[in-house]
Sequence to fold (797 residues):
Amino acid sequence: MVRWGLMTALCLAAPVWGGEAENLARAIRENSFDRQECYRVRDLSLAIEDFKIYLTDGHLIFSRPVGGKRIAAVFVADVEGGDAEVILLPPDRAERRSLASYIHSPNLDEHFRTGVFLFTGDIYETILAQLPSNPANRRTPEVGALLEEQFTPTLRNLSASYQTRLVLDLLNHAGGGDAVFASVLESANLGPFDLVYDPLRAEPIIAGQMTSRDNRLFLDAWTSFKTRSMRQETTPRPPDLALSDYRIEATIGTDLELKATTRVKVRPLHSGVRAVTFDISPLMTVTSATVDGRPAEVLQRESPRGNAMRAGNEMFLVALTEPLQAGRDYEFVFGHTGKVVFDTGDRVLFVTARGNWYPLHGLQFATYDLTFRHPKDLDLVAPGELVETRADGDSRLTRFRTRSQIRFAGFNLGNYARARAERGGYLVEVCANRALQPDLKRSPSMPLRDVINIQPSRRASETLSEPFPSTAPNPLDRLQEIATGVASALEFMAGRFGPPALDHLTVSPIPGTFGQGFPGLIYLSTLSYLRTVPRSAGSLAQAQELFFQQVLQAHETAHQWWGNRVTTGSYRDSWMMEALANYSALLYLEKTSGAHSVDTMLDTYRSELLAKGENGQLVDSAGPITMGMRLETSQDPGAWRSITYGKGTWIIHMLRRYLGDQRFFAMLAEVLKRYDHQEMSTEDFRRVAARFTPPRSDDADLETFFDTWVYGTGIPALKMTYSVKGKAPALRLSGAVTQAEVGADFSALVPVEIHLAGGQTITQWVRCGSDPGLFGMALKQSPARVTLDPDRAVLRR
Ligand SMILES: [Zn+2]
Fold:
């Protein structure tokens, strides 16, 4: 558990610019409590959307004003019988279950002794208006002097975490529902925990706790959800800034430092905005910004608390001299610089993929024109068409342009050898490092980290005990093989799903054990370039070999559709892109290596889900797949990976078995058509899939399927019994399927196959639940055999 004091160490030094935003930021960091604004308080309350805070009995002190507003307060229950209480009721079962997994209660109803509050709304005025309601309430400057001294350091630590966010509101004069409220409450049971209302988040309410484990800082989000009023809305909110037409000019020096000028068109949704925010990797420093040629002030500094769940990026603020007008296009120009390229040795380079290398505002479809000046001895690859590449003084200039809109532009560079393959009108170009990275020369045991999606976040790591099976590794061994393989996977998928995001795909190496699928550009683990010795069938080593030699490249290829044509908006839906990409890779694997290879992968995923996590619980029980990145918690950091990829793959596989191949493939094609260049939610996916359920389905709307596998947890143990009674030709088959090791509300459909003597097979889908699922039929002759789920149609023990 982290104490407040630790937060100091996590805040970086502030750049000094001295504009209005920086002046506000400094005032926030140097804010202190105001002893003249200290009150003995009884029976006050604050209601902020879905939570209520009761300041029952104690003292409350406010901070000095910043930008004319009092923006902080601390409550202490420092009197005899002093008390305060917070109540937060999560709106749905999954959120109640998530909360309970941390605090052993589905609702947050907690008494607290100390509460620090930061706000930009009218909290001060609201409290002052309530003071006359109790005659005991009065000003207490003598207590104020003590509290001012005791809590000002705490205030400064917490304020530093939120300063960019607070400055944004202060510059934009946010009020009412637009104003942020952040608090850290400390209770005897739970220690310090965070409770935040931030209307700029897609889910404004969040309660959780900062914890550190193994030198990593986690924000365990106990619960996170949309406010009551947002839950009524049926259409998603458009972005407050629409970005288009990126033009980036970047120079990569011999020291691999990247200096860039990024130009982008920005169209605001609202008028009167004085400050806007963008996201960028913390490795990048934004050195300047102009808007339509006029200099704007940049405020870049945030701490882990404020940036938790921002996927490896940090928020920075641009303060304008003039308010923006809705609907007009502005030209924003950013100067930014940083170290995102590293040399692992022998010119084998690693482009860090953990955050944006240029400013973004969410993920939006845009065209890109990318010009790089880079060291002469290096090749540079980026999405789109190569417009030109030529010597440019001491360096080389390479320019790319995308014809279609994409949501993110990555790049890669190295001393490459290249191979090409063309299939079905699509060109695949594969780059390989000419040199072997130093750590692969030692042939060490390789950790199997995972494939990650377009917006990589925090990657879980997991170590496989098997050494990576390569003798005399050579990074050029599989160059042509990869080109042919990826081109063939691209053609296979284009045949099923339609055209990919871009018709030119470049594959380039990345040191590490993962891949990444940008539109038009794939990062492929350097391990995938090495030839391996064959492994024994069905073994963990074989699964690992399949992963690096076939699945990874097909998975990243599949992201050309899943994630780069069809997209998702919320972290709750991103599992679908991973699950669909991975299952598309398995479909290709099935075609090239046979169904048994798919079975090997499915069995590996199942074992991972049934393994005990670091907290001693089954990995699957960490939470439903729709919790997304929130599954990567201090309790079990590896659960997110196993559930997103492993369970996700099983979910799509089970859907395939339930719909049947023909309907399943028609469904995937329909998803691509319906959600092309659009965001698809989990419920959207369910509704499309439900249109393809077989006639007379027991779960025609797939609600039970999604409740069980997508919104729920559990892997059942299933047992079948049956008997045949009567005399031929008037026989009666009756049987039952019972489930164990799952909760009472778990319900799954399971196929039972009845094989008749003549070779005919009848499949009955049996609904299991807390009561045994019964099946039966009249038969003329005794069945040859009756089997339960012979074809891995259900994820079970
Ligand atoms: Zn992926």
